[in-house]
Amino acid sequence: MMNYNAGDIVYVFYRNPHTQDVANIQAAAVVNNPERPGELALFLYENYYPLTEEVAVFSNEAEAYETYGNYFNDTLQGGIDD
């Protein structure tokens, strides 16, 4: 896993909790985990998620979109801010 620091902005695949067959790319902040001192977490949609090897984390948006296209055999158009 890449080394991240609190304050980094990363991009993750996020599944809609109401529609599990829909995944999007979402920006998330790397933060100090308030529940586990000394560990980092992802802060996304007002929730903390463990920063583990099981989470697809990308350091830039372009890499996230490329991997998304390869994994889901689809191409998302535009960017997060579109």
The helix fraction, in percent, is 10-25%
Global mean pLDDT: 84
Strand ordering within the main sheet:
4-3-2-1-5
Shape: globular
Q: Describe the main β-sheet briefly.
A: 5 strands, antiparallel
> What order do the SSEs take from the amino end to the carboxyl end, as H and E?
EEEEEH
Structural class given helices, strands, pairing? mainly beta
| Strand residues, percent | 35-45%
Helices, by number, come to 1
Q: Which regions contain 5 or more consecutive residues with pLDDT less than 50?
A: none
Rg for CA atoms = 13 Å
Count the E strands.
5
For the termini, the CA-CA separation is 29 Å
Draw up the topology in text:
Layout (H helix, E strand, L loop, with lengths): L8 E8 L2 E14 L7 E5 L2 E4 L6 E2 L2 H12 L10
Task: Walk me through this protein's architecture.
The structure is a single chain. With about 80 residues, the chain is mainly β. It has one helix at about 60-70; strands spanning about 10-15, 20-30, 40-45, 45-50, 55-60. Strands 4-3-2-1-5 form a five-stranded antiparallel β-sheet. β3 (about 40-45) and β4 (about 45-50) form a beta hairpin. The longest helix has 12 residues, at about 60-70. It is globular, with a radius of gyration of 13 Å. The relative contact order is 0.23. The model has no long low-confidence stretch (mean pLDDT about 85).
